[in-house]
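Our preliminary data section would be incomplete without showing what the modeling component actually yields. Below, a chain of 548 amino acids is followed by its predicted structure, encoded as tokens that our downstream tools consume directly.
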Amino acid sequence: MKISNPVLRGFDADPSMIRVGDTYYIANSTFEWFPGVRLHESTDLVHWKLLPSPLQSTELIDMRGNPASGGVWAPDLSYADGKFWLVYSDIKVVNGAFKDGINYLTCAEEITGPWSTPIRLNGVGFDASLFHDDDGRKYLVQQTWDHREYHHAFNGITLTEFDTTTMKLKPETARTLWRGDEVKLIEGPHLYKKDGLYYLFAAEGGTVWTHREVVARSSSLEALSFEASPGNPFISNFDTPNSYLQKQGHGALVDTPSGEWYYASLCARPWHHATESATDPRGWCTLGRETSIQKVEWDEEGWPYVVGGHSGTRYVEAPVDAIVPDSAEDPALPRHIHDDFMSPTLDLEWNTLRVPFSKRMGEVGQGKLRLIGEGSLCNTFDLSLVARRWQAFNFDATTSVSFNPSTYQAMAGLTHYYNDQHWSWVYVTWDEERSCRVIEVAQNDRNHLTTYLRENAVVVPEHVQRIGLRTKVRTQTYTYEYSFDEGATWHEIPIVLDAKILSDDYVNETYGGFFTGAFVGLAAVDYSGYETMAEFTDFDYQEFEDAA
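Predicted structure:
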């Protein structure tokens, strides 16, 4: 049996992987998307099941107003003393000299919760992880941020002891373990102990094409006692521009019950236009940073290495002791997901921005998703939007909506969304010149809005109650369609949009917060303040690719 990479497709970055008994768990970053921290479980490293997220309430994470790509960065999941420990951040500043953010700790006896009231740890730096030493002591290991313009911003990896009696850190114990090497940008630390030695895994090079993971070790946890592996980088695609997987680096190590070792890493899969070079730049990663798993072995000197070379491989041998789920389906097959909104709660694949889905935003159940129009798609405080990740390069997404606006300031429809500055949508609104409902297409590109149809906006016949909206995503481009007869006939809107605008790489050209991925979703806007409601009756997501 083979692991087919990426194992988690679509935006699932910064994996923290552990094993408890015969079950593996991965926690991923969610940034400004709610609920916070995405969890999956597996018994074979091949088939992964999505679990309820731990940060389900504003008591655990309140991101209202957070900037794009703020919020939850690189959560760390661990298991000790009969319970799960989760360290996570809430980053309030993304661009500029500062990265204001606080690291928190919550615990649960079961992976599905309930999770405890969060403990405030510190704000020294992001990507914090908790190390449980075999003598019972615990330490917070973290990237250290330096705002001073005459210093490098990434000021090494700091270790601080955590007092389990007071459940607080002991700042007086803080020391720098390692500063990394000349590549700089050292972050994402995880500490392990094997054969009496401490191994520090950390990312370098920034989470772009130069990204990589390196390893250092020491016989103690004294300051600056760690030495780098002579085999570094442990994993990287900087020098393998033609590899199927790119950007591998930041991740976590795990062993199997039978003693094998694996490493979960973030990764990305770029595409490029025919008119562009495949190597400079390497392309556009519309699915964001995903998760891959590579097999690891140890050399005679006790250093870890990736089997097959530091570029990793697309297909990896699964553990010999893997337990395949009885209901396992081929994870490489295209997904087809249909939501009829019969459940009174949103499916686990749905996400909102910054705050949980609530009565203020709308309600779901009995075959309907009702969204109350709030702020625009540029709003970081009040926005009625539910969305799910792009998990394939080619897919259709379809919905139907009933919406009766009385002003052009009210809109509802189907959206592709990266962040508040980069999105597009097909929507129903009001045309005051013709005194009728119309269908329009608009795109926000680097916060510059283009409305495409204008006086040619499609008139919605008065007798039509439900309007079908569909999008077709085909790797490099995507289009929108509409139907007035319950989907029997579809009409393509002659606007072809470039998918690269919804990629990390495109966003990174002008904005430092480029850490998420493209989403497709449903939204209602009414910035007039009169809360016009939109009623969606279904959502269908159909992939069209061998998504291995």
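The first strand starts at residue 2 and ends at 4. The chain has a mean pLDDT of 97. Preliminary results of this kind motivate Aim 1 of the renewal.
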